[in-house]
Task: inverse folding
């Protein structure tokens, strides 16, 4: 399936500034992107990187500086199409295949992210459009309802975990199966536990 | 399947003190427990509430004041047995059935929680024991390895979401299908969005 992978090539992962330097955030975002592209391909998808600026990566790339929702909607000319975020460092081929399979059962398949986000989509309805701003999970369900598109929701911890904040790095270290987890370990980051909570610390 | 539902009847949900009063936390924890018991039954399970103090609830109940891991392990006399936390307010019968099904394919099935936790288990190996303290997901995988038990991991956003903190209430409001979501709405809690993040506020 054609799979758009939006990627912020300008200021990636700014909310990780409390544990990674500018250069490290850029490098880490690229490693996650590379993982996601490999995962999409293993799941049988055809990835297209939709980047905010030119990026040197081993996949077809389109540069679009417009807001995310506009840029993504512009790729809905030939349906179905999937949209998978570039920071889903826990995604596995099995999880992405579940997304594709859900897309075959409904006009729109949604894998919610934590905090009301939409981490992955399959769109197969010509009137559906995205709205990634705000509580996009709720908005995407509303838009689907408004245009009469049926919805399937993909219940996946792996797809629900986008990597934005320090706490998310613990999930990568604990569950990641790609290069992003190795990258974090090589950078000296590790999961530590005290009093029942896990934290990520740099050694 | 026999399904143990551990429940803290003494100081439930203390980390929700910034948005719910003592009495409200007690009531909300009970509503979540009731939801989980209904979900387990709908999934074909036989729930047993394992409580730290007597609790009046419509299910068989055992009171055990010992630490969680000891109390749970003591219920592993007749296998298989599932362990499902009482604060999984997003759990649905479909998700719990996926847990049970995974338990049929391996000696131990684990549904990880965010932050290294173990939100649900199916145990069908006589030498396995739990260790809920610290990073229990990692510990449970290690213990399984040490005793030669095969492991299946259940990839579920719903089962990964235990409700401990204010941010978790947004997940209940957005995705909950039981009474816990209604309870929060009746208490005046709602999801608000600004600048792309969702928050929970009280009206």
Result:
């Amino acid at each position: 399936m054609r799979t758009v992978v939006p990627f912020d090539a300008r200021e990636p992962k700014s909310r990780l500034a409390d544990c990674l330097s500018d250069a490290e955030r850029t490098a880490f975002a690229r490693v996650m992107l590379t993982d996601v592209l490999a995962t999409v391909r293993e799941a049988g998808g055809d990835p297209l990187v939709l980047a905010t600026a030119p990026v040197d990566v081993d996949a077809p790339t389109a540069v679009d500086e417009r807001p995310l929702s506009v840029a993504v909607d512009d790729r809905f000319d030939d349906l179905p199409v999937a949209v998978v975020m570039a920071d889903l460092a826990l995604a596995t081929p099995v999880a992405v295949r579940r997304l594709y399979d859900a897309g075959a059962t409904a006009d729109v398949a949604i894998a919610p992210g934590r905090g009301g986000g939409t981490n992955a989509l399959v769109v197969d309805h010509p009137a559906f459009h995205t709205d990634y701003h705000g509580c996009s999970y709720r908005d995407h369900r509303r838009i689907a309802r408004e245009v009469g598109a049926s919805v399937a929701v993909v219940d996946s911890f792996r797809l629900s975990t986008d990597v934005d904040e320090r706490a998310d790095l613990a999930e990568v270290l604990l569950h990641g199966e790609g290069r992003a987890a190795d990258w974090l370990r090589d950078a000296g980051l590790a999961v530590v536990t005290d009093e029942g909570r896990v934290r990520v610390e740099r050694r």
Notes: Chain B is about 35% helix and 20% strand.
